[in-house]
Each structure stands twice: as structure tokens, then as C-alpha cells.
């Protein structure tokens, strides 16, 4: 029975020591946060991204305006001539107007998606560069976790690594 007590005491002591080490390891983790939006705003070349995006948006807007002009012209012509049209012609023109209206609505929906896709395509290289810099800074400085402040609702004890990431990217403060 004494042997069992001694073995149980050894096991309890080993578990207590292991527990202390795991608590210390958990406290040894470093947390940091970064404001990637702030970095993105000052990155070299970001202004060309905005210019390209605006040009793309203007092209879409121009196409939309052309479609609306075509619709308004056909609608005005229809309204002027509706009294002199045969029933068959009126039905054909009404269908044309309806089809054109539907195409305009479809264009609006797809244009919004195209604009979002273009924004993603143009921003991806910048976002990838920021992520790579965050990874380097985190590894070089021993961080376990890095959070982005744009989606973080609360952060207590953590380091702001935004200046370090900017430095990694060659951005002057």
C-alpha cells in the first residue's frame, strides 16, 4: 500500500509540474495587432489602383448611360406613335422595351459584381504583400497571433506591429 501511495504522489507531482509548464507556455505567447487598412492607404502604387478602378467604373457607367439613352429614346418614340400603331406592332415594341429594361437591370447587377471582382483583382497584390510582411514581422519578433484592428472589437494586451509592417514594406512613417 505504501508503494501505491508513493507512486500516486509521484504521478500527482509530475502532473502538477506539467500543469505549471503549460500555464507558463500559455503566458509566453505574444499577441499583436495591425491596422492593415492604414498600411494599404499609404502603400506605394495604391493611387494607380484607384485610378484603374475609377476608369473601369467610368466605362461601366458609360455603358449604363448608353443603354438608358437607348431605352428613353425608344420609349419616347413608342409614346408618340402608340396611337397610330396596330395591335401587333404595339405588342412587338412593348416587348422590345420590356426586354431592354430587363437587360438594363441585368447589366446593373453584373456590373456591380464586375466592379467588385476588379477591385479584388487590383487589390490582391497589395494585400498579399501586406500579409507577407505581417508574417515576416510576426516570425522575426516571436508573435503567436496577429489580429487586424479593422475586424477586432477589443484588444487588451497586445503590441501594435503596424509600424514594423510598414518598415518591412519600405513605407516611411
Summarize the structure.
By secondary structure, the chain is mainly alpha-helical. The chain is 76% helix and 6% strand. α4 crosses α5.
Task: Offer a few descriptive terms.
173 residues; mainly alpha; 3-stranded parallel β-sheet; 6% strand; rod-shaped
How are the secondary structure elements laid out?
Blueprint: H1 2-27, E1 31-34, H2 36-42, H3 46-81, H4 87-141, E2 145-148, E3 159-160, H5 162-168
Parallel strand pairs: 1-2, 1-3
3D structure, described in words:
With 173 residues, the protein is mainly alpha-helical. The chain has one domain. The chain is 76% helix and 6% strand. It is built from 5 helices and 3 strands; from the N terminus they run αβαααββα. Strands 2-1-3 form a 3-stranded parallel β-sheet, covered by helices on one side. Helix 3 runs antiparallel to helix 4 and helix 4 crosses helix 5. The chain is rod-shaped and about 85 Å long. The chain starts with a helix and ends in a 5-residue tail after the last helix. The model has no long low-confidence stretch (mean pLDDT 85).
